[in-house]
Amino acid sequence: MVQPDSHTHDNFEKDEAFDALLKPVFKGKKLTDEINTADDKWNLLPAFLKVKGLVKQHLDSFNYFVDVDLKKIIQANEVILSDVDPEFYLKYVDIRVGYKHNGHKAIMTPPHECRLRDMTYSTPIFVDIEYTRGRSIVLHRDVEIGKMPIMLRSNKCILDSAAESDMAKLNECPLDPGGYFIVNGTEKVILVQEQLSKNRIIVEADEKKNIVQASVTSSTHERKSKTYVVTKNDKIYLKHNSIAEEVPIVVVLKACGIASDLEIMQLVCGNDSSYQDIFAINFEEAAELKIYTQQQALEFIGTKVKTVRRQKLSILQEGIEAIATTVIAHLTVEALDFRKKALYIAMMTHRVVMAIDNPKMVDDRDYVGNKRLELAGQLMSLLFEDLFKKFNNDFKANIDKVLKKPNRAEMYDALLTINVHSNNITTGMNRAISTGNWSLKRFKMERAGVTHVLSRLSYISALGMMTRISSQFEKSRKVSGPRALQPSQFGMLCTSDTPEGEACGLVKNLALMTHITTDDEEDPIKVICYLLGVEDITLVDSASIHINYGVYLNGTIIGTTRFPTKFVSQFRCLRRTGRVSEFISIYTNSHQKAVHIATDGGRICRPLIIVSNGVPSVTAAHLRDLLDGKLQFDDFLKLGLVEYLDVNEENDSFIALYERDLSKNITHLEIESFTVLGAVAGLIPYPHHNQSPRNTYQCAMGKQAIGAIAYNQFKRIDTLLYLMIYPQQPMVKTKTIELIGYDKLPAGQNATVAVMSYSGYDIEDALVLNKASLDRGFGRCETRRKNTTVLKRYPNHTQDIIGGMRVDENGEPIWQHQALGPDGLGEVGMKVESGQIYVNKSVPTNASDSILTQTEAQYKETPVVYRAPEPSHIDQVMMSVSDNDQALIKVLLRQHRRPELGDKFSSRHGQKGVCGIIVSHEDLPFNDQGVVPDIIMNPHGFPSRMTVGKMIELISGKAGVLNGSLEYGTCFGGSKLEDMSEILVNNGFNYSGKDMLYSGITGECLQAYIFFGPIYYQKLKHMVLDKMHARARGPRAVLTRQPTEGRSRDGGLRLGEMERDCVIAYGASQLLLERLMLSSDAFEVDVCEKCGLMGYSGWCTSCKTAEHIVKMTIPYAAKLLFQELLAMNIAPRLKLGDVFEA
Amino acid sequence: MSNIVGVEYNRVTNSSSTDFPGFSSEQDNAWDLEKFKQTFDVRIESLDEREVNFDLVHVDTSVANAFRRIMISEVPSVAPEYVYFFNNTSVLQDEVLAHRIGLVPLKVDPDMLSWVDTSLAEAERFTDENTIVMSLNVKCTRNPDAPKDSEDPKVLYRNAHIYARDLKFEPQGKQLEQFAKCPVVAADPDILLAKLRPGQEISLRAHCILGTGADHAKFSPVSTASYRLLPHIQITQPITGDAAKKFVKCFPKGVAGVNEKGEAYVKDPRKDTVSREVLRHEEFEGKVKLGRVRDHFIFNVESAGAMTPEEIFFKSVRILKNKAEYLKNCPISQ
Questions:
Q1: Class of domain B77-220
Q2: Which pLDDT belongs to residue A477?
């Protein structure tokens, strides 16, 4: 198919959904209306989301990987040489994903076809290689080395910059956020992983053990290692995994070439006498070890190193090697100049000394500024590099094998061997993504559960999955620190959206307006720093290093400055004018006397309005241009009106929440306050009036709500899909709802709720439903379940076939085949009942025979039988061919469900309840207008839950109904309660939302006023039909002959230990006997009274007599136990006696 | 006891009637048909094809409520119940479309049909006496005359929107004459049933039978049948000046007014919605008493379209009468 040309589509018309938000007339706001910066600055948020999208972090990361990182990996593993032929070389010149050197795009199977046909959405990886063929050097372009799974909506995806109409042609939903992969037909997400930042010093203290330690995790392309500077008995040591024992810090510094004790003191402590007192003791140990020179120190370290090498090195060389490559591995040493490394270790020691002197000078591991987020791109790059290296190794081995042959007839062409292995990269990538196991030998990384199947339960659940962040902490550990809400999460991570239970606080979600950075080049930044007057650290005198502010680039000191404030402001000026990337952060840490610059990837940041002299730089004119489409969000960045701050820089800024808080010292202004919440928590109306755990509960439940999933929901064939028949957009919405498109793909209905007690079937949060509402379609949903059948081909050329339908003597199909068509497949629209067949498959009986001895094929019927308590309808039948050329049949079965007793419902405030009773229309209370509630909710649900937001939702919703408007319940804003009450009063209702109701049963007035109005209710996926289960008799387990377990196996209902205790306590011994044995696994055995062992057929095999045999009934499990004991040489003997002695 | 239900700030008082024998020694309150005939009153406020608004005065709550309940759930009407699909390639699933068709109110006199005997086999169940057959056969095609720049699917395609009016009556047997004057049509022709795109088609047949609202809401002949009690406003102390103006504002237009003395007075309590706004303001405390007349029911019956609203009410009366007669003949009452 022809690819949509990305150039023809202007960026402006990229996403019609967001365009609506940016239209001059939107939600009642007209072009002529006065623009108020305080009220309208929130328009920056849709502008941000239009540019960035909801899952931009994934897309950016993947784009970076494909466009930049791949090239770096190729460069790092550029050349393949042969051990045999020194003349031979092969060099990778370029790598491209998806298009050839002449710009031609490779043809891709569209994503939806991949989903349906169980294929992988991928595109070829092309490399250009240069190699020697005989005497000549050949350049070969566009060699395919494998296929790369493509992230949907990334810049390699065919959906990139596709207009809504193009999306429709491709059967894609324009609201689908993308950011996931399709591997073997399943949608897989690589969750964002949270980690402690790499290559940064973290100082920690254990006050009980009196230990202070500074640690740094060095991470480079080749290896990962951790270096510690620790205190032990008040002395400071360096610790590293590949050095056998702790090395005194003075020895290490001497080994790094700082031989003078004075200089060591200067580097570590500066002029501070209290630091000097703390550190002085360390010189003694070095002196005791008689280490005075660099050589002595290196040899000392050399003896401690525990590495296994092929060739032996001398002790000195070992020491040099250790300092140069293993310790602080991320700093590379050139020409044996250890100065930089010495400074780094000295700085670590300095931090330790500071922390000893003042225990408050430690770092917080849980501080978001010390975290980095690892995204799909980074993980894919690790994986690709690993596979690529393996690919090259195999390639090289093959080349060597060929070149080794002494007399080759023809000239060797390396290209001929390359294609042989091209599958490794493809399958390696596919397997890793589909299983989620990331095992990389280089880093000894063995991570399971990196990828997850994208949950399509509801639109929100899919969206929520894309913003989810999982932490590396162990779930079982009982520590509160990493789980607690960190103040530094403000605006970056959602404060409400986290699961309950074991993963609480460890799994987080991104807030609405965040961005995650990708790696940026360090070197240009370094140059800029020096140009701005930073003194190069290699040139700075050791004595003055602690006098001035140190300038750190990604944790490594690169120089000092005497004027930190000026430097920082000049640097920021460069960033605001677009001279350096907007994602580079710079901040001053006056405690550490340091200016930190960060360019690394994985930092969370968010945009803020720049304020100077108490005046926000974004003015009404800018906002008008934004609404007119003259300005884009990126222009705000370029004009220096808005900038991104990461957590560290945010901590160094003074941010006003509202315009009224502006003053002279303020540096930034928030764009919108509701962005502290994420996409999922943004659905809750008036969340700022709720008790906080209720919002958290709703975040979990919003993902279980049945609704519309995507525009292409009827074209999808998923394992299980729940859809609501008549979803409605909420009466009370939030700005977030509009931004994420929940009003277009809603999951719930506006129910008229009466808060009163009724019938007694409403205790414990149960709800009373109106039968007439159900008749008219309230809460109706459908389930769609997929069944996949593969018609296998066997090696002996036989294959599975589909039989037709069988007919009875009248020519009518037999009952089992009633849903089938003449082709043996279920007919679309037919009803299938339990026991009926919908794919009449047969397998050959001689599939394992050899092709030579093969006889005429006989077929055995192996039909796909429908088994469920309720019948289904056949919705779709798809027949296709999968990747491996086998016929693939997918049958989609649909069930239409009307709410019934026990179905679960929930409002948007963490208030769930099951349907307790369904009441007919005439019995329900009614108001003056004759309005009858859809749902009656018990008022006891309110006092302990304190969900005031729900009450306000009701009043706003009622006002909206009367006014003909949709009201807002946006967090920290929304329609005001006073205004809503006024609308109620103007329409002849009571201000409080309480109405006078008449009982439907007696017809009299109720003696209390009833809180009555619309509340948005969600139907949750837990439905009685999927859970109901009963059994009188049924299957038993083979081994124990006890009833099977679980509903899926038609299992028994267990009378457990506690129930057993009750029966014992009551003394109902016969009941106990019946429940535990007779109804379970009663078994008649022949017991020999003499020897006490079990015989059979009236014969004791050990006594060789039938004389003393007694028949008795025991549980089969007991018999099994006796036999197992016998098998391990223990003879359990039964001693029999009468219960009632004669 | 007064027959005024007290509407107070946070509660409703005196909501049950006490005029039954044995409640108090002072009054007998025994049932007296003559007295009832004298006091009972029916006033029709408004009446049109679809809606009636009338008052029942001096009747017990139980009787008024019985009428309401019977109108909702026991007056029979005709609705599509069995839908047979021949073809349906629209996006709507068969069940959903069948449900939608079922909810369409039909203009058919329920007295023309008899009840379906569900004990019979499906093949014999439906006759021309008890079943009305409606069919829907539509196919969406492109409109060749559509203007090029048009984006409206209704212009671009033919039969893009399927409405209730597209349901066609298929008279069976003697129905041809029976329904010659009043062919069965949807009461509201503009109910959207489905949307189609070129190439999609729907072909189905619906069997419409008699049923009651107790079985399914679609058989209910009313969209709403309810009553409210007549509001009662009593000014106990004169309200004058600005307070009087404010007092008037507390009620919907026309309920209260200010007379030439500057005193507030009650014009027409019937128009009040009993929003209880007056009770919110301190200045009216103790000066006004809100209430509702317990035995004055303002009925509002809105027909779904099959029958006129008054007919529905009369039927409810007849059903109640039959019930009473049945009870009378029961051995327990003799």
A1: mainly beta
A2: 67
